[in-house]
Design goal:
It contains 10 helices and 18 strands. The protein is α+β, with helices and mostly antiparallel strands. A hairpin with a 2-residue loop joins strand 5 and strand 6. The longest helix is centred in the middle third of the chain and has 26 residues.
Length: 408
Amino acid sequence: MAFIDVVEWSPSNNDVYAWRFPESNLSTATQLIVRESQEAVFFSKGQMLGKFGPGKHRLTTENLPLLRRLYGIPFGGTNPFFAEVWFVNKAMPLTIDWRTTTMRVMDPDYGTMVPLCAAGRYGVKVTDAEKFLVKLIGTMREFTSANLTDHFMGPLSSKTNSVIASFMQANRVGIMQIASQLDQLGAFIGQPMSEFWAEYGLQLTGFYITSVDVDTRSAEGKKISEALSDRSAQNIAGYTWQQRQSFDVASNAMSHGGDMGILGMAMMGGMFGGGGMGSAMMQQPSQTGFNAGPGLGAGANQQQGQQAQGYGGGAGATAGRPRGKQVFCANCARPYDSSSRFCPNCGHEYNPCPMCGSDNHQNAHRCVTCGATLASARSPLDETTCPRCRTIVAPGAKFCPQCGNRLS
């Protein structure tokens, strides 16, 4: 049997952490060459014979004293022995990508559980070659970054998910703000992850989080992602959720033709402030002279007038609003009680329609629900506003009909 003269490792890339020399028939005349950033570790009969750093070494009994006890090798001469030689790469770049499994986190902004997933990059290097080889290598011939990721995917994902969820809850950071916290979040995870890798003879050289997003791999995640996209589109385009629903209803009505088509055109005219037939049909019966039929004529007009007076026609007329009526915020589309002056969810000031009470934007010209003309669309020459309760009053009135405030 021929014995090996030279033992060395020339890696073709930096993706390999450890590599085992394919031959084990060595002798005390064998030359060992260890390059920079490498370390060679010898194992024989289940024991570690020794470790060698960068340089050229001869495998003598002086360098490997255990050879005398294990093989009875005397001093001097060329004597054969068998051993496994592992080369360990002790310099690794930050090129290992990771991605967690799905985690469910209570979002503080929306008050609901949201499925999230995180991704990023980390780097580790070997600091204790013996501990690394004993705990991780086993019967393998080489150990790469892919093997490292596969081996630690379970504990890595579990620890990362736990820390991210704790960070978001402790700091009340929602999915809309988490992108601005990635650096701080990465530093928050760094310490517990460093302690975890140290148990395997590894040092964490860098841990970075590149994204924390809604996990769209599930049906629930897809719906949440679509809802967030719709909300962003609404904010950019300047329309509300209520207007979007009204637009969809009007479009559906127009597609049916006939009377439904005329109704859809009327709704479109009301939403976009158009004139002509659409604008006229969107006005209230008291404005157009239209009689809705038995039971909906003067009595209905009187009832609508009382309802308009109840809402006070202004955002400040809190005392005149009916209690217990649920409205939807024109800004965030969340429901709240109409007795509130401001939306408790986003702080938007309640701007009720004088006819139906629906909330509208402050600069809206027509109600998104019933199409009634709003105070922001009226000319200041036609009417005035009470300085105390902001109720719209007719020109020339000396007292506010809502709060009794003297106007002149």
